[in-house]
TrEMBL record:
<protein>
    <recommendedName>
        <fullName>Sulfotransferase</fullName>
        <ecNumber>2.8.2.-</ecNumber>
    </recommendedName>
</protein>
<keyword id="KW-0808">Transferase</keyword>
<dbReference type="GO" id="GO:0008146">
    <property type="term" value="F:sulfotransferase activity"/>
</dbReference>
<comment type="similarity">
    <text>Belongs to the sulfotransferase 1 family.</text>
</comment>
<feature type="domain" description="Sulfotransferase">
    <location>
        <begin position="38"/>
        <end position="297"/>
    </location>
</feature>
Length: 300
């Protein structure tokens, strides 16, 4: 099925989830060609759940021995989406087959792929998956702003109300949102060594604890010396919204896929949805969330 949607093209339903034309081609190419390796780390997110933040944090965490100095760090010169590229939205965009020979192990990649659409090589390898999501109200509002900011949809159907209606029906990029989240939630319960399930709100609330959890999961725990020397705080400061959003690179540059880097930084707060959605819309998303996730032990 095809539905008129955002990001300059129609949304197409593939394996139960919605993708725009350009992304769908990337999904197919990635499914056919990406060869996962056991040490790989995949950062899997729903769009607008804090992907940019997660990429920065994991890049800094995994490369902290190589780049111990926060004043001379690659994150100051490159956008996190350049340092940790997307599979289906970057490396395998359209029908282009990526050359991954220059990547050093452990390779870090980002993806929005739903769990059932991951390439077979990912399913058959021991690579780790870090999953990040965010409460559906803030996710929707962030998504709506992002699409308006990019101004790639001039088809006149991106009013808040209409986009909300579609999101509620599951028709959004990589939606249904709830199915995406639930797929990885179940996998994280079944295979906790393989999938770490994170929420944006939890990282906001307890950044240090979540970063240490992440480090432990990735087999790179912080040593007591690192903890006392401020390494954990250093990474959080380097990757903070204020720091990243004010860097020249993120204010001025474009990604090779065409987006302005600054489009990935808006407010970076929890609860902004209430400033944009009516009480009825807020209730509706709460109700769908309750219906869809009830009984699985997952709440937002
Ligand atoms: P808002 O639109 O609510 O501000 P993604 O990276 O998945 O595209 O998600 C973008 C959202 O994450 C935006 O949310 C953006 O402001 C927020 N964000 C980007 N960098 C962040 C950071 N370092 N810390 C916290 N939030 C961040």
């Amino acid at each position: 099925p095809t539905e008129k949607g955002w990001v300059a093209s129609h949304l197409h339903q593939y394996q139960g989830f919605w993708h725009n034309t350009r992304q769908l081609q990337g999904v197919l190419t990635c499914q056919n060609h990406f060869q996962a390796q056991d040490p790989d780390v995949l950062l899997v997110t729903t769009p607008k759940s804090g992907t940019t933040w997660l990429k920065a944090i994991v890049f800094a965490l995994m490369n902290r021995v190589q780049y111990p100095n926060p004043e001379n760090h690659p994150l100051l010169a490159e956008n996190p989406h350049v340092l940790v590229p997307f599979l289906e939205l970057g490396l395998y965009i359209d029908s282009q087959v990526a050359d991954l020979t220059t990547f050093t192990s452990p390779r870090l990649f980002g993806t929005h792929l739903p769990i059932n659409s991951l390439p077979d090589s990912v399913k058959n390898s021991a690579c780790k998956l870090v999953y990040l999501c965010r409460n559906p109200k803030d996710t929707f509002v962030s998504l709506w702003h992002f699409t308006n900011k990019l101004r790639i949809n001039n088809m006149g159907d991106n009013s808040l109300e209409e986009t909300f209606d579609k999101f509620s029906r599951g028709v959004s990029l990589c939606g249904p949102f709830w199915d995406h989240v639930l797929g990885y939630w179940k996998e994280s319960l079944e295979k906790p060594q393989r999938v770490l399930f994170l929420k944006y709100e939890e990282i906001k609330e307890q950044p240090k604890a979540q970063l240490m959890r992440l480090a432990q999961f990735l087999g790179r725990p912080f040593t007591p010396e690192e903890e006392t020397s401020g390494a954990v705080d250093g990474i959080l400061k380097l990757c903070s919204f204020d720091n990243l959003s004010n860097l020249e690179v993120n204010k001025t540059r474009k990604l090779s896929s065409g987006e302005d880097c600054k489009a990935f930084f808006r407010r970076g707060e929890v609860g902004d949805a209430k400033n944009h959605l009516t009480p009825h819309m807020m209730e509706k998303l709460d109700q769908i969330t309750e219906e869809k996730l009830h009984g699985f032990g997952l709440t937002f």
